[in-house]
């Protein structure tokens, strides 16, 4: 099902209208067939909620049943080469060209290069965890699918809702920045193309129609073809990489080592505070994991694509940050267009146009890969019916999720039209760090807890050690946020984290071995990822946590009244269908696999 509004032949030979917006396209489940059914579902809400919290999905359901709900398969057209360029295109964009100057000027000074190292290490640890999941669960759901398999529907929904918000906000921020750099390229002031409307609230009264136009164009490209998107991203990223090397080489020619003194004017706290914000510069690589379903050779292509792109990105970020701080004293670095102004300050006015063009290419790639990734997240969420299944339909001709792509792009365009960049930038990192922490936690659960193989004693030990790892990491982060100069707390919390990880490694045997590619040094690497991500959360401001709480609360309301009942009915229908299939094939079947229909 798509949005074009043309007829399409189904497997049964019946022609049906492609564009359909009936109630059954959005709420087809048994609980919504009548008001009586819905009232009964609300009465059963506590029981259903417990079921969804405790029930973990299975690989089979994610790989087969979920994909079947999209009517058509996504085309397997991508190789490791495509994934590397998608990774570079997704990550290297507005973060490096805008936030580097801001954080160097206000938080870290020349030590911003170390902030990028810290953020890069955290992102790389998360990449390892994502990769093991991506090669074994080949669906478009990314972290949502991984968390649903290991931590259950409820945790997966909360996580996925926040990552979708993160994609929309990040896309809007990049689109607004695209307009500013476009104005600079034409030798105008950065706010030249903004339309001020005095009747609107401050912060939402500078309309950006160019950002909306860019979002629409990106949406069309993402809908037409994943492979076509890959080719366009490939070309744009090559140009972008060329400009990055131009900045590094020419910037170092005009460098002055005196600008590196003092190196860390804001000390260690400034370095880590900047790293939490600069984590936004690495956001996007998880979009590559959503393309696992469209990869030709996942066991080889996904590890090379994900890890390769992240290593290259971290190296380039550090070189760019070092170059910027060598060109100018950190106090004089411009917070809006740092690289363009840096070349202007050393007398190379002509270079600012090359930098602006490169930034536009980079941000175009970020928008394109973001549009592809966010649509695939929504596609897989709706396959489980936590969101209306209308979003999950894959167009037979293009092999892309048209509905999901169009809706997510519209949301991005609307926010980009009204909302100023400084408001958007404050919303970005917290959800992503939260998701990455959960993925690392899910990987430990996947390795150590397998239904039917893990004993109750080992499961209890696993739960105990995981709770201690989480508690000690949260305590370390909280102490960092509240104590400006203290150190005694770290002498308590860090050894506890270390002992808990040692206990998990020594006392709990691994119950699952990876089939194609596995994270090395388990449980050390995932445990370190949990600790670092939670630690960086301690450097984020209170307002961001409040916004995180408000959005999570709104998602809970939707989930309790709609998503919970839709996904519950869908899961029971799948188990019922699987049970009867086993009977027809003469296989043994557990009675719990045959679930009675919901009461009318």
UniProtKB/TrEMBL annotation:
Pfam family, one: AA_permease_2
Keyword Zinc-finger tagged: no
Spans traversing the lipid bilayer: 77-102, 114-147, 154-175, 207-225, 232-254, 274-292, 304-330, 350-373, 394-417, 423-443, 463-481, 487-508, 515-536, 548-568
Localization terms from the record: Membrane
Protein name as it appears in the record: Cationic amino acid transporter 1-like
Residue runs in coiled coils: none
Topological type in the membrane: Multi-pass membrane protein
Keywords annotated in UniProt: Membrane, Transmembrane, Transmembrane helix
Species: Solanum pennellii
Family, as annotated: Belongs to the amino acid-polyamine-organocation (APC) superfamily. Cationic amino acid transporter (CAT) (TC 2.A.3.3) family.
Ranges for domain Cationic amino acid transporter C-terminal: 517-567
PANTHER family: CATIONIC AMINO ACID TRANSPORTER 1-LIKE, INNER MEMBRANE TRANSPORTER YGJI-RELATED
